[in-house]
Amino acid sequence: xxxxxxxxxxxxxxxxxxxxxxxxxxxxxxxxxxxxxxxxxxxxxxxxxxxxxxxxxxxxxxxxxxxxxxxxxxxxxxxxxxxxxxxxxxxxxxxxxxxxxxxxxxxxxxxxxxxxxxxxxxxxxxxxxxxxxxxxxxxxxxxxxxxxxxxxxxxxxxxxxxxxxxxxxxxxxxxxxxxxxxxxxxxxxxxxxxxxxxxxxxxxxxxxxxxxxxxxxxxxxxxxxxxxxxxxxxxxxxxxxxxxxxxxxxxxxxxxxxxxxxxxxxxxxxxxxxxxxxxxxxxxxxxxxxxxxxxxxxxxxxxxxxxxxxxxxxxxxxx
Length: 319
Hints:
- By secondary structure, this protein is α+β, with helices and mostly antiparallel strands.
- The chain has 6 helices and 15 strands.
- The protein has helices spanning about 10-20, 30-40, 55-60, 85-105, 165-170, 235-240; strands at about 5, 20-25, 45-50, 70-75, 75-85, 135, 145, 180, 185-205, 220-230, 245-250, 260-265, 275-285, 290, 295-305.
- About 40% of the residues are buried.
């Protein structure tokens, strides 16, 4: 028997969004029914069938203009959508959905005070703030750029890996799943997004080895400058001179047991942004290198935009 909830009114749909952590809405298709039967969880994961001809108010509210359209809601807010026949995109969303269901099933409704993980989900070094989601998947990784990175460490993509950092797993990893700065302690990370996003929290994990006698041991970041809505990465001189959207000073107390700094952002300044630049100004110590293991972005994802195109907003010095 199908576990799909058939929506008969806008008020019923609102109740479903409020009662379930994850909601997947669609008109009926075979793949939708298969996913519903396999992944539905009471009060956790709900598949909602919406007949757009009968429920025009719901269709208009969520801008459903073509069929099929899948919309995924997390905590009552739109997190992702697939519009039209796009098998590759649907496959990607199904994979993320399967991982998230595994995460919900494994962790229940509680998150740990430090790190959280699941058998199939994404590792995070700190708990999610209430009503917000991990939107790291919105990063357009192929267009990311990391300046002054040591070529003997990992690529920029390791920062967004879903796996637990090897430094916390015990034993050594065959490939280095972290990055270090090269000629000095500074790093410049440019991240464009697949959609306009709202950022609430930045989570940065840094796990330098604890060898006090080694002068080459990298440091954790101390000063960060964040810049939003840049169409490309900044140069180091620009990053030093330009006014940041937010500047952050980290201390030893900022890092939890999993080596993660959970950094609340000035939410009003991080609304509807198309990109983020993180400038690691200096490290916490006297060394010459800084280290990053993971970066997680927490907030809300908006409508998808055309891949590879960024709006040039506030791209002048001081904006």
